[in-house]
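User:
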Amino acid sequence: MTLSPRENFLRALRREGFEWTPIDAWFCDSKIQDFLTNYGHKDYKSFLTLDHRWVNIREKAGSNNPAAFYKNENLPDTTEFDVWGIGHSKGSAAAFHMTRMHHPLKGVDDAEMIANYPLPSFSITENQSMVNAVKELHGNGLAVISDLQMTIWEISWYLRSMEELIMDIMMGDEKATILLDRTTEYACEKARFYARANVDVLSLGDDIGTQAGPMISMEMWEQWFKPRHKKVIEAAREIKPDILIFYHSCGHYTPFIDGLLEIGVDILNPIQPECMNFNEVHQQYGDRASFWGTLGSQQLLPFGSKEEIRDEVRSRITTCGEKGGIVLGPSHLVEPEVPLDNIFYMMNAARELYPRKTR
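Assistant: Predicted structure:
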């Protein structure tokens, strides 16, 4: 039997066996330019023979004048705004995709202002092209993953500021409930749309770990975020029961894994090797979860040798075994300092163990 890329990808993530190990890589803008310079085109995903593609909705900004909401902050002239009205400014041109964030709801004391703050929106009609793209990719034998990251916690503190959102939560202030409920409901709307579009994987994510340990307490997560994430997952599965749920958090988040699996998460990303031990996590959760990423973006991929990358790839595949349960890739973006050759070493090492088959 020779599987299509989509079939192989989904079987691997469901731990049902596979013909080749799926891989992933998400290039930052400067890396895409490097690839274009070296290979004459930007389609690195086809070059790497990825079994999946990311497809996302187009959103409309909540406000045509987001700067008007910054009553408590003087914004740099270079500030740019996303669809949420969150401001982003760079310290220098070398910052690439890393920005300082400016929070439109920081310093707001009136709960009604938080209740009325204009959130982004999306039109089903204007996103028909996204639905068509899913059908086309499936027709070409590829799997589809859609993005709902910065799901609740992150987008809420981006709006309010981390300090003030945590203070609201600790004080039991209604402003926290209002904001978190609003971001949750918008996430549910998007989850339903993606499920109706028949995407294969829904990618949720809120960073709840730092490299030194959890970012927030287990008690806070259990009370304020776990039930809201459960609501988002249930919204998708009411429409598409077999949709796979991917959860991203950078940093150390091992204490939260049991809770994430309880609410329906299937795939854990990225298991950052600088602060989580993949073998230990797999030993404890490998029968209940699959994994995505796991290869270090800070050390292994930018600075590792061909042999070190090959050994790490082989270790991951061998640990997961014949059932699969892994999509191998960087633990974050392919950053500017990662040589293209190291991504190719990753791909080739995976294919050495399980050569890719074609129909």
